[in-house]
Write a structure and sequence with these properties.
Length: 479
Amino acid sequence: SPAQIGVTGLAVMGRNLARNFARRGYTVAVHNRTAARTRELVAEFGGEGDFVPATTAEEFVAALERPRRLVVMVKAGEPTDAVIEEFAPLLAEGDIIVDGGNAHFADTRRRERSLRERGIHFVGAGISGGEEGALNGPSIMPGGPAESWEALRPLLESVAAKAADGTPCTAHIGPDGAGHFVKMVHNGIEYADMQLIAEAYDLLRTVAGYEPARIAEVFRTWNTGRLDSYLIEITAEVLAHTDAATGLPFVDVVADRAEQKGTGRWTVQTALDLGVPVSGIAEAVFARSLSGHAGLREACAELPGPRCQVLDERDAARFADQVEQALYASKVISYAQGWNMMQAASAEYGWGVDLADVAAIWRGGCIIRAAFLDRVRAACAADPALPTLLADEEFAEEVGEAQPAWRTAVATAVRYGVPVPGLSAALASYDALRAERLPAALTQGQRDYFGAHTYRRTDREGAFHTRWGQDRSEVRADG
Ligand code: NDP
């Protein structure tokens, strides 16, 4: 029988996604540039369902029912263009190419435009959850034409993760690059979440004097409350792990240089272009870069820092609670920033992204899945025009209540010399957003002084300039 879906690119992600479709009862055509991978897949997992192995692109395309649905899971960048160019000439009007790789949304916009002109539907789909997710249920963020969503919907809903209430973690995000954009912001938020968790760990270790195994217990407790999430859960697992070779805590034998594949950097670069402050994500990306600058760190290793005593048992317990509050409030700020970024892009590109849907499909399958996202979903659904999560009554109240402890945690970090760029940037964002007057007024004065860039007044309409170099009289600058 003809295959309902095809997967080309059978490295870990493609193979697992193909198996996921087959296990759900679909007939899956499978193809890979190097045919050995296709043979291996069928030899090892052929018993899991109906696979139609194809050696050539022609065989692969011929195996698919019309309109054809083919998923490309190859290395992002040039390989994706090469594969699209290989298949597009073999396809017919209305066929659908899904790119499930980690493409940059600008590439997806370009590919979608060019394929649309050739009558082919192109769906840039963000897929999160790593290899385990691909096999057992990822969160899937498809962009592209609405008709292709209708054609893909039953298949994607079937293989996607299910949220606690049973709804599939996939939804049509919007046209062209919307899906890959949202996936990029997901990864940016993931960076921010991970950085905040790392800072909380560092504080518990340095200020409270807790050992990793004890910190694992603290995280396990946090995971039963409002911080309940996959990342907190695995943090406890990693901290509780002992290195077999040395008997030391695993976290003490791992080199402290964090690596990155680039989606966090893309998020920050894009945020700069859109003019949306995402300081939590930016600090997380910079923290990873800093950790890798061995030369700089060595050059600064002897610089003086404060000398502080580890807290006693009672104060340490109180401090741990303050750190939980700081972590939670900062997490709300990072998500609010990520949400603002999606709002801005949706407006800029006319995508019409439903932010309640985004929260809903991140509740399961993806790396940032968390109980918290159900509340974000509810807040966005209750008011689709919500300017920021901080304007939601419940979040505002929680962050407001956490605020004194958050300040104490950040102030303590500063006193102890523990770097907390994520926690402190989040607090600075909170304070800047709630400020009645910002020193931006002074910045405008300086700009007018050295560059005649003009300023606006609080009491009158119009643009003004002060003749700083002459008699300091004020003139209208807008004609
Ligand atoms: P890789 O990114 O390692 O890519 C390997 C696959 O790409 C192989 O099938 C390879 O074929 C194929 N390929 C590379 N270059 C070409 C080319 N020029 N022409 C044809 N095929 C080519 O595989 P992953 O499974 O790790 O990831 C697949 C995609 O999913 C990537 O875009 C990745 O960013 C994304 N992704 C990965 C996640 C993960 O956890 N790994 C999570 C979410 C998304 P061959 O066997 O012939 O070399």
